[in-house]
Amino acid sequence: MAVSEKSGDEIRGTARGSAAVPLSVLDLVTVGAGRTASDALATSVELVRLAEARGFHRYWVAEHHSMPGVASSSPAVILAHLAAHTDRIRLGSGGVMLLNHAPLVIAEQFGTLEAMAPGRVDLGLGRAPGTDGATAAALRRTDRLNEGADDFPQQLAELTRFLDDDFPDGHPYRRIHAVPGPVQATSPGGVQSPHRPPIWLLGSSGFSARLAGVLGLPFAFAHHFSAQNTLPALDLYRESFRASDVLDEPYALIGVAALATEDEKEARRQVRAAALNMVRLRTGRPGLVPTPEEAEAYEFSPMEEEFVTSWNANVVHGTPDEVRTGLDELHKRTGADELMITGNAHSGDVRLRSYELIADAYGFTATSG
Question: Among 30, 94, 158, 264, which is most buried by a count of CB atoms within 10 Å?
């Protein structure tokens, strides 16, 4: 099978400074207590501009629902906004939850994004609902969620055909076209962009790892909330990988929770507040991201304290040098081809400063234009 160099180039990044692999950004558009969704989205604009200027490779937005502290329920809308404020950085979903949407809708949305930002849009797809079961049922208008999960490969194939506009003759969708898309090039006088958003599969277990490998697609693993499964999933992806028109060899990134501050104690304060947010989410009490002061005043039960300790053990945090060391050790341990950093904190200023410090620690030079 011939391998498209163009597609691979759109997937693979370039390491900057002293980093061993490309560094990227995962934005959950977190909303802190006392802040609004508008505040969070304004921070995202600042952050994507910073990421582009400092040499981060790509910037992804994740789909979540029914979580007051996460304002990223509509990745395509947010990405369109971010595209208007950037020129070079890759933008994408980390990811869109495929089973929540009709494949044609996703193909149209990301075809539109590709038209807005040619050659720099990624389509990352997840199999999970990105929310609780009841909300997933409301999104999908069905409570047969387990059956839906089994349909993921079929829906992925359908989405791919819409993006490529290549349903075979006799297929009921043969005369249906995702627009913007390749069909425009076949119309009289039509000219079509040579780019098509590359598909990534996202996962936190083995299912998508194996599927991505079999299909020869790039794979993104959610190490930031499923660290115990990282190495088995990456091994499965690499063992299952078959060369394709997209990639000639595996390419895997991992999401990493990381926060840098000038003072190590301050980093501990910040990540403890973010951990309290996760305690509440995991116990059915989702809310806005609490302040460090609120976390300091909160009386954690022994079980909650155990969760916080376990959770923060997988958050790379501390001074810039400590974070750089932690990221480098994680890369060596996993062999990931790219690290995608998510820095969660109550304050947008703290998040922005963290990415600045990480860029400085690796010697990323500021760019403009």
Answer: 94
Residues 6+ apart with CB under 8 A from 331: 20, 21, 339
Given a cut of 70, is residue 129 above it in pLDDT?
no
**C-alpha Rg value of the chain to the nearest Å:** 20
How far is the C-alpha of 335 from the C-alpha of 128, rounded, in Å?
25
* Total number of residues shown for the chain: 369
- No. of H helices and E strands in the chain? 15, 9
Distance CA 288, CA 6 (A): 42
Report the alpha-carbon distance of residue 91 to residue 101 in Å, rounded: 20
SS3 assignment, position 338: strand
CB 318 within 8 A of CB 327: no
Q: What is the pLDDT of residue 6?
A: 42
Cα separation, 88 vs 90, in Å, equals: 6
DSSP 210-229: HHHHHHT--EEE-TTT-GGG
- Placement of tokens 């990931």 in the chain: 336
Determine the pLDDT at residue 173: 96
Sign of the dihedral defined by the CA atoms of residues 176, 178, 179, 181, in that order: negative
Residue 354 CA to residue 76 CA, distance in Å, equals 26
Backbone φ and ψ for 219, nearest 5 degrees, come out as: -130, 135
CB-CB contact of 25 with 51 (8 Å): yes
Q: Which helix (H) or strand (E) holds 26?
A: strand 23-27
pLDDT above 70: percentage of residues in the chain: 93
What residue has token string 């290549």?
166
Per the CB < 8 A criterion, the answer to whether 60 and 25 are in contact is yes
Are 93 and 80 in contact by the 8 Å Cβ rule? The answer is no
> Is residue 49's pLDDT more than 60?
yes
